[in-house]
Amino acid sequence: MSKIFSNNINRDFSDIGRSNVISSNAMLASSHPIASSVGIEILKNGGNAADAALAMNAVLCVAEPHMTGIGGDCFAMLSVDGGTNIKALNGSGKASENAFASNLRNRNVSVITPEMPDAITIPGAVAGWSLLHEEHGHMPWKEIFHPAIDYAKSGVLVHERVGLDWSKNTEKLSKDKDTLNVFLKNGKPFKATDNFVNSNLSETFKTIAEEGSQGFYHGWVADDMINKLKSIGGNHTLNDFNNANAEWVSPISRNYRNIKIHECPPNGQGLVALIILGVLEKFNPNQMSKADYMHVFCEAVKIGYYLRDRYLADTKTNKLSVDQFLSDKMIDSFISQIDMNKAKLYEKTHFPDHPDTIYLTVRDKNGMTISFINSLFDAFGSGITAPKSGILFHCRGRAFNLIKDHPNELNPNKRPLHTIIPAMISENGKLIGSFGVMGGQYQAAGHAYVLSQMIDFGLSPQQALDFPRVFPNNNILDFENKFDKDVIGDLALRGHEINHPASPIGGGQMILIDNDRDVLIGASDWRKDGLAIGY
Question: Are residues 124 and 193 in the same domain?
């Protein structure tokens, strides 16, 4: 039996926690119970994993409007038959044809902030949804959007984590009158148990359901978005929207202790997760103290993010190949710089910190498996809403920088460096898992951390997602409240700057596939309102 299944999937019922969800036919997991319930109904009524993922995500655009929306971007990984012939979908939008870093530099602008029109790249999500369904959907396209249309019109009851996040963004939501009208209730944030309605978004979903992606990138919806962008000083054009597209790309991968990790290639940061794992693999956690392991993990994360900030960007402008990043020569050169007794300080990142994303995963009765992620980048994205369509724009353009000749410099028709990364895992030529760890730029570190907890320490999917987290964030270690204080104290003595307790870090969902026993194991962590469901 695979070492990843060597644990008994049994938890200690004397301690607070969640059980794994176990089924034999199908499994899904999302960050919101309503989305999960919609997805399971789709599967039971004959839809496949792609159909369920799209329906769930559309509902999340209403139920978690601070995390995701049709004004954002998406990525997905898809195994059509449950095997290892995995496809990666890049549904990230591009900068406008009129976007030039030099123009901002000439105005003495050094940082792209969320509310700037320059932060709003052309939303790529709907193009990604369309391509996914066109090639792999089973249900009629228009039926997929019925739940989202109904929820946007009649409302979704705000859940607890959503309400908490909403309460932190009152000022941001007050700056744009169209945003204020939709996303605040009498000038106040929506609270848990409030009913949130976005009737204009319901009409937009109806148009997309009837006309496909053409109904988003052309016609009245596109006109509404462009008019809003022009009103705030944007130079986006109808041509930008008309030329929006998604594409299938080849995944990248590396082995970690004989288990293969599959990630989307750049412009995503999945490569960073593989770099971190490449460093960790050179050490034996079972022969290390907890503090030594955590020190190595934190140093590995800093190495990965240092390389990301220097080199990663749209695939067309990357200066180093994936193979170069993952070579033993590159990995070993950085490992040689790790001092077990002292934290190393790396150049501070200028990449914007942001914790907001949704992730979901589905496996259907025929084995089709999808790992899917959709995001607005910041909480409530840019905070800018197109009035007639109810579309809240993301601010993914913040991920560009304004450094002349940098690979990730803002320039026309270019995709920015992305943080959102769905993933899959396989072993001995068989798909054994689909997962994602939310939390903005934390995600690459989160992928490596959760996988290490399972592969190196035998935790179950639910235990690994629930395990207290650390994130080396710009040379400061953010520790969640429940993290081992003795380990924190040891790391402080090695020169690590400590932030404890930090707010809960990210979220996560997972499906583990035990091919030997035809068992599906689902998990959704405690940091969100969501759940895994199987049948």
Answer: yes
Q: Which two tokens stand for residue 474?
A: 């710009």
pTM of the model: 0.96
Tokens of 17: 């926690």
Report pLDDT for 3.
65
Q: Do both 294 and 330 map to the same domain?
A: yes
Structure confidence at residue 305 (pLDDT): 95
The predicted structure's pLDDT at residue 12: 84
Q: Which of 336, 367, 399 is the last residue of a domain?
A: 399
- Its sign, for the CA torsion 376, 378, 379, 384, is negative
pLDDT of residue 16: 86
pLDDT reported for residue 11: 82
Q: Are residues 370 and 297 in the same domain?
A: no
Left if phi > 0, otherwise alpha if psi is -120 to 50, otherwise beta: which for 100?
beta
77, 180: one domain: yes
Same-domain pairing of 281 and 376:
no
Same-domain pairing of 81 and 160: yes
In a domain, 8, yes or no: no
Structure tokens at 119: 């932060």
From CA 294, how far away is CA 191, in angstroms rounded? 37
Kindly list the averaged pLDDT for each block of 10 residues, start to end, along the chain of length 535. 64 88 97 98 98 98 97 98 97 97 96 95 98 98 98 98 96 97 97 98 98 98 98 96 97 97 96 98 95 98 95 89 92 96 89 80 98 96 98 96 95 96 97 95 96 95 96 95 97 98 96 95 96 97
389 and 325 in a single domain? The answer is no
Task: Tokens for 392, please give them.
Answer: 């809240």
- CB 359 within 8 Å of CB 370: no
Residue 1: partners with Cβ closer than 8 Å, 6 or more residues away: 516
Joined together, the tokens standing for residue 295 give 């020190």
What CATH number does the domain containing 323 carry? 3.60.20.40
Three-state secondary structure string covering 324-393: HHHCHHHHHHHHCCCECCECCCCCCCCCCCCCCCEEEEEECCCCCEEEEEEECCCCCCCCCEECCCCEEC
Residue 12 falls within a domain, yes or no?
no
Token pair in block for residue 239: 């041509």
- Please tell me the total count of domains within the chain: 2
How far apart, in whole angstroms, are the C-alpha atoms of residue 155 and residue 158? 9
Say whether both 329 and 438 belong to one domain.
yes
273/275 Cα distance (integer angstroms): 5
